[in-house]
User: Fold this.
Amino acid sequence: MKAKLFSILLLAILISSCEKYDEDVMEIAGVYEAHVTGVAGPFSMVISADYGNSIKIDAPWLKDNWALISADVRDKEDYSKRIVIYSQNFDGNKRIYGEGVFQNYTLQIDYTIVDGNDLYHYTLVGTKL
Assistant:
């Protein structure tokens, strides 16, 4: 009986400790007024929490080509959080990667887009509304 009760209690603790959204990542989620330096803006950009330390960023990464890009949040317990966009495909044959920082409700992401043999380097800057 004690073993069964212990098993049920252990299972309940494990289930309750698995949170889908990390509170340190939720601080980044929201709507931003943003600009791509020298190219476009202002526009409203949305960042949503995905799972654990992952986020989704919906923005016009290349001119008017909006895409939903996945990114990870590093150093999430720190005041200054690092954002990493691992190499991923979007809009057909284009590839994007980059990294940035979130601090004091301001976000900056430096990213590169590979389109065939062409490389485009951009900086996206936004302030959380």
Q: What stands out?
A: The two ends are 55 Å apart (CA to CA).
